[in-house]
Design a protein that fits this description.
Length: 290
């Protein structure tokens, strides 16, 4: 891209003059790029107006997950969860992002026990006492995307399942603590992976987090199996998800060949996932949805 003069409008679309907007940001990025680091492209950096749009979208996203938490119970079908998500999202003016996304047939992903992610809601799937279920909710409002997921423990859940859910949540919290400008996505990844391993668990390699905002899935791919000090440099204005899938047994997974979506653990062991959406700020992070 051509070098902007300080009095030209900034590339971020803020309307401010480049010299008073991202000129310093570009200088800093250039230092990292010259040291052969992977740096974020301009196209994924959000301006204040976009961030505000995403915050509004995330408010609905979080409210829908709260609503699910209040109404989920043993005996409910995942189809009924899907209906709740559709109704609540649209009632608040949003659109469920998964619906028709690359052919996905429902408004939300519901993944139970050994399902790792992308479970498809169905009237045939009854949530039972003792199950752990991830409800992964994604929302569009005025063109802005938000995405988060939670685990719900249904009725009387075994100690081992409780622990898996708890440790996975801690993984996200430890990863989040690593989010700061001029750190690396690998810092987030290793914090997550180390904690999972210390507890005897494994982290899924093939599926991970993603940039988000103007599209559902933007760059970068957020892996949880890379090392500290590697991966993309985190810079102010980036927004991405932290959403590790933690397996009780092996990290191996397979895709259901009947629907081409739902991912299962290969060994049939349980899997848990929490997802948050985080904005890298000038001095740390802002959690946009949890
Ligand atoms: N949070 C999930 C993801 O980012 C949501 C997937 S929705 C689906 O992959 F439509 F792609 F299934
Ligand atoms: Co996501």
């Amino acid at each position: 891209m051509r070098k902007l003069r300080r009095d030209e409008p900034c590339w971020c679309g803020s309307g401010k003059m480049y010299g008073q907007c991202h000129a310093e940001w570009d200088k800093k990025i250039e230092i990292y790029r010259k040291k052969f680091n992977i740096v974020p492209p301009h196209g994924i950096i959000k301006n204040e107006e976009q961030l505000q749009g995403m915050r509004e979208s995330a408010k609905i996203n979080v409210a829908v997950l709260d609503y699910v938490g209040e109404h989920i119970h043993p005996g409910i079908t995942t189809e009924e969860i899907d209906e709740m998500v559709y109704q609540e999202t649209t009632r608040m003016g949003g659109i469920p992002a998964p619906l028709n996304y690359e052919g996905f047939p429902k408004s939300v992903c519901t993944s139970i026990n050994d399902q790792v992610c992308h479970g498809i809601p169905s009237a045939d799937v009854i949530v039972e006492d003792g199950d752990i279920i991830n409800v992964d909710c994604s929302t569009i409002l005025n063109g802005y995307f938000s995405d988060s997921s939670r685990m719900y423990m249904i009725g009387d859940v075994s100690e081992s399942r409780r622990k898996l859910v708890q440790v996975t949540k801690e993984c996200v919290e430890l990863g989040l603590k690593q989010v700061k400008p001029w750190g690396y996505l690998g810092d987030v990844a290793q914090a997550i992976n180390d904690h999972a391993k210390e507890n005897g668990y494994s982290v899924v390699r093939q599926v991970g987090g993603h940039g988000i905002g103007l599209q559902f899935h933007e760059d970068p791919f957020v892996s949880y199996v890379i090392r500290k000090g590697t991966g993309m440099v985190m810079a102010p204005g980036m927004v991405f998800t932290i959403e590790p899938m933690v397996n009780e047994g092996s990290s191996e997974i397979y895709v259901d060949d009947k629907n081409d979506w739902t991912i299962y653990t290969d060994d049939g062991s349980d899997s848990a996932q929490w997802e948050i959406m985080v904005h890298v700020t000038d001095n740390g992070y802002e959690v946009m949805s949890w």
